Amino acid sequence: MAKKIGVTMEVGNDGVVVITISNPPVNSLASPIISGLKEKFQDANQKSDFKAIVLTVLRMELDVQQFLQSPE
Q: Where, by residue number, does the polypeptide cross the bilayer (predicted)?
């Protein structure tokens, strides 16, 4: 079964919001994922009864080279 690409949010009865990143195969922080995270955090903040936010990612890789390059 193919994994869905994007960011999902589930809210439990206990007030815990679980935000999950899914961007196979490495769950990189591409622009659409960052936008999705911002959207889900804003959605969670709109809920008056949330107590905690848990961010889940099974595996993530980061391109360190992008941080080593000087700003243009």
A: none
